[in-house]
From TrEMBL:
InterPro entries for this protein: Ectoine_EhuB, Solute-binding_3/MltF_N, TAT_signal
Gene Ontology terms, MF aspect: ectoine binding
Signal peptide interval: 1-29
GO biological process: ectoine transmembrane transport
Domain of life: Bacteria
The entry's keywords: Signal
Name of the molecule in the record: Ectoine/hydroxyectoine ABC transporter substrate-binding protein EhuB
Region (Disordered): 231-253
Domain Solute-binding protein family 3/N-terminal: 57-289
UniProt keyword annotation of Signal present: yes
Length: 303
């Protein structure tokens, strides 16, 4: 059986040790690797947009995580985030793109140390990250989904269903979906954790669990690997806890203070949302209308 390692939703939701504190302090000379960098941010709106137009090239920090961004077998930059970013930067007068692949955990430090100009990785936007990164508005809204046995014999469509039926649930190590389940009455000690969705599908097929919870987009990507005909995905949904929708979204990250570039980027992004172009670009990567969003970075930075 072919196994494929997938990086899942928790990487987009979770915070990296030290990154939140680094951004919140706004400290000068914070340590990133072995070098000293200034993360206090540009002043006067920044001048990066003008510089990029002169150079004609923008460096994009990416983490290999389909369908958001990755380098394919031909060595080409691909994914929803690069496709959208390329379109916008071309309209801002920047025609060349240089991908800089790093581990997800290195994205924010790499931005601070000027290894690249923008994070293009579908990174989740939240309050702690907003202290370290200037985010665009989100270009997608995350949804959860369940992997279940073919036909969904237990009729599982929500975390409340799992709690009510006392079904055996699986999820990834540290996934936010665990908190959503617990918030709906599922006992944390009854939730099994696995390394990725592939391992979750194998557990389903072996009868060790009744349902595996994760983000819908990574579920879609996992099912593309094939080899699991007895497993299907439920419809994507927005999880609720205590009756409150838990909405999340991902966007593009700029260095603090570079508001001129961020605002110009946002302006083009909003045009694409209104015209439907954003969905047309994102659709080949598994994004559908239900992943489009009216959320703003300002809203998500309060979470």
């Amino acid at each position: 059986m072919i196994k494929r390692k997938l990086t899942s939703g928790i990487r987009r939701r979770s915070l990296l040790a030290g990154v939140a504190a680094l951004g919140a302090s706004g400290a000068m000379g914070a340590v990133t690797g072995c070098s000293q960098v200034d993360v206090s941010g540009a002043t006067g709106g920044g001048h990066l947009l003008e510089d990029l137009r002169k150079k004609g090239t923008v460096r994009m920090g990416i983490a290999s995580e389909p369908p958001y961004a990755s380098i394919n077998s031909k060595g080409e930059l691909t994914g929803e985030a690069p496709a959208v970013a390329k379109t916008i930067f071309r309209r801002l007068g920047i025609k060349n793109f240089e991908p800089v692949p790093v581990e997800f955990g290195a994205l924010v430090p790499g931005l601070h140390s000027f290894q690249y100009d923008v994070i293009v990785a579908g990174m989740f936007i939240n309050k702690a990250r907003c202290a370290a990164v200037l985010f665009s508005d989100p270009d997608y809204e995350s949804k959860d989904a369940f992997l279940v046995r073919k036909g969904n014999p237990d009729n599982i469509h929500s975390y409340a269903d799992i709690a009510k039926g006392k079904y055996r649930m699986g999820s990834g190590i540290g996934y936010a979906e665990i908190d959503y389940a617990v918030g709906n009455g599922v006992k944390k000690d009854d939730i099994q954790t696995y390394g990725d969705q592939i391992a979750g599908m194998e557990a389903l097929e072996a009868g060790r669990i009744d349902v595996f919870a994760g983000t819908a987009l990574t579920m879609i990507e996992a099912l593309k690997t094939g080899g699991h005909p007895k497993v299907q995905m439920t419809s994507p949904f927005t999880p609720e806890v205590d009756g409150k929708p838990q909405r999340d979204g991902g966007g593009y990250g700029f260095r603090l203070g570079e508001t001129k570039l961020r605002d110009a980027f946002n302006n083009e992004l909003q045009k694409m949302k209104k015209s439907g172009e954003l969905l047309r670009i994102a659709k080949p990567y598994g994004f559908t209308k239900e992943f489009m969003t009216d959320l703003t970075a300002k809203e998500l930075c309060k979470k």
